[in-house]
From TrEMBL:
Cofactor notes: Binds 1 Fe(3+) ion per subunit.
SUPFAM superfamilies the record matches: Rubredoxin-like
CDD domains attached to this UniProt entry: rubredoxin
Pfam families named among the record's database cross-references: Rubredoxin
PROSITE patterns registered for this protein in UniProt: RUBREDOXIN (PS00202), RUBREDOXIN_LIKE (PS50903)
Organism expressing this protein natively: Novosphingobium endophyticum
Official protein name in the record: Rubredoxin
């Protein structure tokens, strides 16, 4: 499965879960997350994430 990991803190975005604290509902594709969204753990910007396969 493809997930996106924050290279600053290791937090993983799973589109099946979304980011409830950041108002990103479950099922939201990575491409559909706004560019100004930030990591909920460390505040890193979206461009600090890399796709990883688990």
């Amino acid at each position: 499965m493809k997930r996106w990991m924050c290279m600053s803190c290791g937090w993983i975005y799973d589109q099946e879960i979304g980011d409830p604290m950041g108002d990103i509902p479950p099922g939201t594709a990575w491409e559909d997350i706004p560019d100004d969204w930030k990591c909920p753990d460390c505040g890193a910007t979206k461009d600090s994430f890399e796709m990883v396969e688990i």
